[in-house]
Amino acid sequence: MKHRPLVVMSVALLGLGILAGCSSGESGSSVATTASRSAASATDVAFAQSMIPHHEQAVEMADMALTADSSASEDVQRLAEQIQAAQGPEIQQMTGWLESWGTPTTMPGATDADGMQGMDHSGHDMGGVMVAGMMTAEQMQQLEQASGEQFDDMWLTMMIAHHQGAIAMAQQAQASSNPEVAALADAIVTAQREEIQVMQELLTEDSP
Questions:
Q1: In degrees rounded to 5, what are phi and psi of residue 126?
Q2: What is this structure's pTM?
Q3: Among 26, 66, 106, 113, which is most buried by a count of CB atoms within 10 Å?
């Protein structure tokens, strides 16, 4: 695999990351205060409740890439670090919103793995990957057992599908009347499209 620079994170996402980082340094109070200034719709709540576990799985996949057992390439490790740096603060930000709105941080009664009740995201079943790009427990186990070039190919393929699911979810919230929610949705769409492009290029390079 050739070494190539990764796409620089978008300015919008960086700004949101700074906002989330500042709030988390003070027990999340500023995030809660800012989010509470705007009313939350049912779609806003569903977006946050659904995107949190989605991001958590992406961070888990990134963690796998950074273990010695995976023998992941430098390019994959850099992507993993980028995903951790972006999505960890976003999880904190969305958790702060839900707490400030007085709603559960998980979707009550969610029975499907992606937790996307109440949001239309049909047509995003990607070759056995669960709706909204969530990996099954079996897929996560297979990834954890892979190493080297096999790990890289599996990780990139799975993360592309995972990102595509996140984009489909975020697009549902881009029209939110809550500026915080709309801004985060926009940032997710922009950043993850850029990362998909990088991952697709890396997979192409690995093709015989």
A1: -100, 85
A2: 0.73
A3: 113
